[in-house]
Amino acid sequence: MNNRAEVHDFLTSRRARITPERAGIPAAGQRRVPGLRRSEVASLAGVSVEYYAKLERGALAGVSAGVLEAIARALQLDDAERAHLMRLAQEANGTSVLIRPSRRPRQWTLRPSLQWALDAITAPAALVNNRQDLLGVNLLGRAMYSDLYATAGGRVPNFGRFTFLDAAAHRFYPDWNLAADMLVANLRTAAGKDPHDKGLHDLVGELSTRSDEFRRRWGAHNVRLHSTGIKTFHHHVVGDLELIYETMDLRAEDGINLTIYTAEPGSATAQALALLASWAATSENTPASADH
């Protein structure tokens, strides 16, 4: 991905969403574009207009951490957006090699001990990489994501393809727009972490070609941190699920995280999970190894 173009698109998209009122400055004069003017961002960051315009054109090489922090404050970046800006600056400096994940083997195999660990978890659990491939699950996780496995067509299930190319996703995600926004923000974050991931490039290219909804969201340059929260699903067997998720990185598996879903004890979702476990026990749920 072109670093200068990525920097330009990211900074301009962040500037466009900050209104003068939100920034605490007078909204004087006619505005041709939404959001703040470059001069206003420069003033808030304490740099010259010329210098900020240069940065927004994509020239982040050599920019100090202090200036980057000032720009992040001026644009009111959240933690995920700030980290993304710092990674773009590292890439511009040619230092991303220092933080780039080591080259991974083409074929990633789910270690037996890792599968045993998954199977020991009584709640739905899944392993997902930065490209949003579903690499491994326990029995309840496979039952929950049965739609993804059913329509993967022999390929490793991928949440991006499922969300944007499979009609079943609109039933599985009651708030499909929110799910789609989060999915793309996760992929955009992954692209910032490893801009040389060919598999991710190929996936983005495929989805951009085949889905207008994906292409529009990708152009928004939104990023996010995926850690904890609540997600809602509609399973074709047990109905509505409102699940709390906890996501954590695996130390031994670079770029892969483990997500565990739980429900409030005694809730309707807890009862639905018990029903899902019963259904899973009578269904064929054999996890497969994946291309990492």
What can you tell me about this protein's structure?
By secondary structure, the chain is α+β, with helices and mostly antiparallel strands. Helices cover 48% and strands 12% of the residues. The chain has helices at residues 3-17, 20-23, 38-45, 49-56, 65-74, 79-92, 112-119, 139-144, 146-150, 159-165, 169-172, 176-193, 198-210, 212-218, 268-281; strands at residues 125-129, 134-137, 228-235, 239-249, 256-262. Strand 1 and strand 2 form a beta hairpin. It is elongated and about 65 Å long. It starts with a helix and ends in an 11-residue tail after the last helix.
Task: Write out key terms for the chains shown.
292 residues; elongated; 15 helices; alpha+beta
The gist of it:
The protein is α+β, with helices and mostly antiparallel strands and 292 residues long. The protein has helices spanning 3-17, 20-23, 38-45, 49-56, 65-74, 79-92, 112-119, 139-144, 146-150, 159-165, 169-172, 176-193, 198-210, 212-218, 268-281; strands at 125-129, 134-137, 228-235, 239-249, 256-262. 36% of the residues are buried.
Overall pLDDT metric: 89
User: What sequence of helices (H) and strands (E) makes up the elements?
Assistant: HHHHHHHEEHHHHHHHEEEH
Instruction: Tell the overall outline.
Output: elongated
Please provide the count of β strands: 5
The order of strands across the largest sheet is 2-1-5-4-3
Radius of gyration: 21 Å
Estimate percent helicity.
Answer: 40-55%
Q: What class, by secondary structure content?
A: alpha+beta
Uncertain residue ranges? 97-105, 285-292
Approximate strand percentage: 5-15%
User: What is the multimeric organization of the chains shown?
Assistant: single chain
Query: In whole angstroms, how far apart are the ends?
Result: 20 Å
Q: Characterize the largest beta sheet: strand count, sense, and whether it forms a barrel.
A: 5 strands, antiparallel
Q: What's the total helix number?
A: 15
